[in-house]
Amino acid sequence: MGIKTVAVLGAGHGGCAAAADLGRRGYSVRLHAYNAARLEPLRERGGIEVRGVQQGLVPIDLVTTDLNAAVRGADVIMLVVPSIAHEPYARALAPIIDEGQPIFLNPGHTGGGLHFLHALRRAGYRRHVMSCETVTLTYITRMEGPASVNVYSYTSRLRFAALPGRHVDAMFALIKPLYPNIVQASSVLETGLGNINAVFHPPGMIMNAGWIERRHGDFLFYREGITEAVGRVVAQVDAERLAVAQALSVPAVPFIDMFHQAGLTTDAARDSRNIARACEDSEPNRTIKAPPLLDHRYIHEDVGYGLVPMAELGRLAGVATPTIDALISLAGLAVGIDYRAEGLTLERLGLAGKSPAELMRFVETC
Amino acid sequence: MGIKTVAVLGAGHGGCAAAADLGRRGYSVRLHAYNAARLEPLRERGGIEVRGVQQGLVPIDLVTTDLNAAVRGADVIMLVVPSIAHEPYARALAPIIDEGQPIFLNPGHTGGGLHFLHALRRAGYRRHVMSCETVTLTYITRMEGPASVNVYSYTSRLRFAALPGRHVDAMFALIKPLYPNIVQASSVLETGLGNINAVFHPPGMIMNAGWIERRHGDFLFYREGITEAVGRVVAQVDAERLAVAQALSVPAVPFIDMFHQAGLTTDAARDSRNIARACEDSEPNRTIKAPPLLDHRYIHEDVGYGLVPMAELGRLAGVATPTIDALISLAGLAVGIDYRAEGLTLERLGLAGKSPAELMRFVETC
């Protein structure tokens, strides 16, 4: 009784990659987006043109703006959307999902599942939830046209957790056939606190803010933007993240080791423990330019749905996070958004007022 | 009984400018530096070659590494040294200055006089002190060789205060003939909280840290480095500075108006209230490049002896300074210095444990 039918919610880079990849591999895929104009080119083309890990034109069984039609009876509902869309999707799904219908946040970043669950319940959903998540997308991918996507690879060794955590074996068995590269994590706190994008994207953006704005990102983000000084700030953000994890007894691995495990840098750079060097020596990121604007997911997502929930978990655990706090403040001023109010607060995570012990019980049993 | 003899302590850009300018104008100048190698070229040349507001070779009456010889009987002792040198100079001067011998910190940045006084007293000096200070140097100047200096201009409308403040009329009358551009301020808190370099240099450095390190400062600091996002952070630093001043009933003027009053930007830019635009439109700063390294006074001085004492005065006044705090944290990580410990704390300012009312009395009467 494995998965046959997948509802993919979201038709951006990740959603189209998932629809094409899973469709090519024989799953019945329904692809949903709210924006009809986004889906129109797929209808005209009769599917999604894919290259990379799959090849060719992949027909999609259902391409729709009707959420109910997309999710009804699906064996898994996979949200492949920006974190900011989790809450509206939860409100829309609350009246229409079946009890225990599996939900997969791909990705959940830091606290995505907790946020989604809290929003479902606030929308009146009272039955059991079975959700799961990875910290980043299961694909390295980029759309190359309105109906074509290049899926460079599957993300390797991607940590996977369930919410509530007690269902992790069942959820892992369910999703593993879709994504054999996932590895089981102890809880959504482990996946969430393993969000390395949140550790190094915000310092890279804030400490190059003038360069990005003035030159429209015309420099190499990893090779040139993560200098020694930026690397020292990244290292301190990482130390605070590890301290929060330790206070909550959540397994966590230093940034530089995760970066290396993900195949993003050399053995020598890892052994140097120098983050600037690890980024400079990142062959897969060698040609990636900086974003052309600060108004970008490296800030919106990695601060609001990365650093903010890390700082908030620190607050819950009684661990100070001054460097993370500094970046949240400056990022907010830089782009004119109060991330401390708009990001994933304990309130939005459904964790307000909980003690560390209550938090640990909650992620296990909800 | 005006000033005839000036002891200039420090033989860098500012010290050489002061020695040459005042020497040319007929004052008897003694020039002191601890580093004999710094003075050797001046001895060989028989003085300082000056151009700009003065011209020609200016002989200096005494060029010495002997502090006692430099200051004995001088009508004013002018410290033209980095803030970090105030404390060692105070220790060295404590046993040798006369009671009430005028001391002029040129410049004092934020809290220089308080720091100097506290260090004098810790070194055992128990008599009356007569010190005064400006927030920045009285010259716009740059050395062009080991014995030659270009004095572009005198700094205009420079706020001047005395410590203790009750002597301000006497001190102002004493120094005004040397520097007619000074204007009297209510206290060293007004000069110190009017430190606009501390308001915009640190955001400009931190938010361009990668650019500076990677390109060795090869961009225009004011015209290119202070973008809209950087300007928004500068504006928030400025708002916090003004809030601290207001809580202490210290007169303070917004950054953009001070920048305009100093002749650094256009009427239109001032009226726009847009700091990025004011910096872009700064004609005098048009060609100034960024520093080649983060290891520079734009951080060391403007954070440690600018933002730190502002944050500390905020703490004393009960005013939160989260943006200033954020910049102090990131600057410290960027250059590997704990400015919260090394900079001008309330302890180093001699203000530990004082209430706002006690602070106001202290700057008046010490």
- End-to-end separation of chain A in angstroms reads 26 Å
Which class do the helix and strand fractions of chain A yield?
alpha/beta
Q: Which radius of gyration of chain A do the C-alpha atoms yield?
A: 20 Å
The tally of beta strands of chain A, per DSSP, is 12
Residue fraction in strands of chain A: 15-25%
Summarize the biggest pleated sheet of chain A.
8 strands, mixed
Percent helix range of chain A: 40-55%
Mean pLDDT of chain A: 97
Number of helices of chain A: 17
Pick out the low-confidence regions of chain A. Answer: none
Largest interface: A-B, 32 and 32 residues
Query: How do the strands of the widest beta sheet of chain A line up side by side?
Result: 5-2-1-6-7-8-11-12
Instruction: Name the assembly state.
Output: homodimer
Reading the helices and strands of chain A in chain order gives: EHEHEEEHEHEHEEEEHEHHHHHHHHHHH
Identify the overall geometry of chain A. globular
